[in-house]
Prior knowledge:
This protein is an alpha/beta fold. The chain is built from 5 helices and 14 strands.
Amino acid sequence: MDDRLNAGGDSQLAGKRKKRIIRVAMIKAESKWANLKANVRLLEKLAEPLKDSQIDVLITPECFLDGYMVRKRKKCTRAKLRACSVTGADDPIIRRVARLAALLKCYVVVGASEKGDKGAIRNVAYLLGRKGGHVGSYYKTQVCEFYKAGGELPVFKTDFGTVGILICADRRWPENMRCLRLKGAEIVLNPTWGFYGDGNTAIVRTRAYENGVPLCFTHVNQSLICLGDNTIGAILESNQPSVLVHDIDLGNNPKVKNTTNAAGSHPLQNRRPALYGIISKR
């Protein structure tokens, strides 16, 4: 029997802890440079076999739809990037991904470049709902010269819990993920195209542990899930397009509270904000 719990369902107990198991799918594939239609087809090809897998959320790498054009600095121009940027959640390309979300009956986090007024382009991750609706957008805060930086760290309510999103380099600033956690994020999704390997694993593992929540690093060459207990939940590396599917128990997240043994507590607990004022100063 599948022991995953749907929102509103009765929780199963493991000792005194309630299980809250969600199923995550992570696309591990390199999309084509500057080819929106081909990349949507690739996403559909990889995702459609999952339609009976009871996925809760599917995640793509960073700027999956345009093939992360800025990685080729000598070849990419602002004009070329704008030509391969979507106009927002109502863009026909995003609506096509939304139909995929409805087919799979899961949330989808899809990366793209988004063009706006006055020539601005932003690196975005759209969160689409199980019925294809637009739940919200997250804009990358730590960006290269082609993009306008996002200015917010929102969290999003879903039927399986509260979700935070960070794009690629955003994970390297510990304040970003800590803010998401303090806003109630129970899991953080990280579409990315940047570096990976041992050094990155140390960063992702640390971000997950110090905040006590799973962090799903979704890269073109690696899918990596690090858990809040300082362990690696799952990892997939391959030179072929593939999808990592893994169940995560959000019931394992530590509670945000004070304990009598501050020295032995989780880093999320027994915080002393009065000591940290310098962090918010320029």
